[in-house]
Amino acid sequence: MANTKASMDRLMEIDGAIGCCMADSSSGMVLAQAGGGAAFNLEVAAAGNTEVVRAKRKTMKALDLKDGIEDILITLSRQYHLIRPLRSNDAIFLYLVLDKGRANLAMARHVLADTEKDVTF
Amino acid sequence: MARMTAEQDALVVRLVYDGPPRSGKTTSLGALAQGMARPVFSPAEAEGRTLYFDWLEYTGGSFDGIPIRCQILSVPGQPELAPRRRALLAEADAIVFVIDGTPERLPEAAEHLRDLRSFVASRPSPPPGVVVQANHRDRPDALPLAALREGLGLDGLALVESVATESQGIREAFVLAVRLALDRARELLARSALPAGPGEVDDPDALLAWLQAATSAGPEGPPPPRLPDSDAPGGGIWPAVDGRMILRSAAAPGAVPRQGSDGSWRLRTGAWQFHSAARHEFERLEDARQEMLGWVQKHAEASGRLSSRRCITLAETGLGTWRLWQVVRAEESLRQRLGAALRESAPAEAAALLRACAGRLLEARGAFRPAPPLPCRLELIGERRERPVYIGLLPPPGWEPRAEELALTDAELVRREIQPLAGEALTAALTGA
Fold first, then answer.
1. For a FRET experiment, which of A33, B217, B260, B372 has its CA 20 to 30 Å from that of B66?
2. Can you state the angle between helices B106-121 and B82-89, rounded to 10 degrees?
3. Is the pLDDT of residue B113 over 50?
4. Count of C-beta atoms within a 10 Å radius of residue A83
5. ipTM of the predicted structure?
6. The whole model's pTM is what?
7. Torsion, Cα of B281, B282, B283, B287 (10° steps)
8. Which of A30, A32, A51 sits opposite B60 (nearest CB)?
9. Which CATH architecture has domain B3-194?
10. How far is it, in rounded angstroms, from Cα B192 to Cα B248?
């Protein structure tokens, strides 16, 4: 069975983590989530970032890059948003929201990559 | 079922949870609702068992940039409530088939799945997708996945493990079902067949009213079947190409057929008539196709004598069954033409037309006699290239005119068919009506 809850819990242990989810890029639906709360609607974020992933893939195809997305970083004034498709199933991606003031971006990317390797779906 | 809202601001899809009794359908829906922080509406339950359906609504995700509004239902699993189950399944874009994957429940699950696959195969294209959710995976006697796949014959179907009581695997099965529903919506969109507008059944109260009407013949009789449209299944329309064009022309959005005293369903719009005999309802698409073959043969044999704008087609009733329909363009009959001429023409012209119609009637009598015979009545005869053609609904295979009809002389036939019209015209002229 998929071990999604453990993966979400691990991501929430990252310094500065505000919320995280695992989403299906075909439908934009959330498969698992943690954190977020009233201040950050992860369902809306997953649906919106599905379009980001699709747009990036479309661009890469147009450029004939023959490469895959490792991760996507979006830097806001106060937050980092990290998107990381699963290598085992690129229709699914992890999405992590970090408080910019408290997070160590390099460490967060490392933990995200490490968590992604262990996700089974 | 999939459709765009009237404002084109959401895609509405319906996911239906099916499966044998007590396999965990309602529990799965409850777990899903808990994760989504949404309520479940259940019209009625008996000892914890669903009698109508459970309803959960959730909006999320993205379909080409617009939100997806999911209507998520579970069906009653009890065999005696099968009509309700089938009516709900008939509206599904995707089905989550929940099973108890333990050895003692496997034969029951396999039988239910066979029934579901047969039902899905009978649905209009594109059919709903199916995800199998193997529940109770925490049980020590739960079968290994390979044994489940083999025991259920799951070739081509996705299988998701779950423990509904602990909310495990529920979301995964749901998201897979949403994907399949979106595949169906995309296919409809590609065919320009994705409807848009307000749904007839968009909330649990409306669904309950619809389901009660659909599955119980009340004092006003059974619910009307859906009219055929140009989305007829492959091999379910004749003639294949012109038939679809005819159905597009004949489309009558919102029109509802009425049931006659003989049990047949009929609708006459301004230009078209739809007819489906009482016995032309079938549980299985294959049986409906088989019946249709006999009608195709009869149409082909009579084709030179029939008006051209007509077709026969199969249509899903909306209740999980199929109906065979005749769709015929309402052409001007000799009776209408003669009646108008007698009312409006000068006596000499009217007399000439009377003679011409009598001649056409007798010509039709000769033309309609060879097998398959056709009824020879003034209101069923039209004209094409100065020859009589049959413009009515084709009688059923095996129909023969009555002996007394065959015994009529030509003069008696003309008198029977034309004299009443001439008499009416004369009476109208004399009374000034």
1. A33
2. 50
3. yes
4. 22
5. 0.89
6. 0.65
7. 180
8. A30
9. 3-Layer(aba) Sandwich (3.40)
10. 13
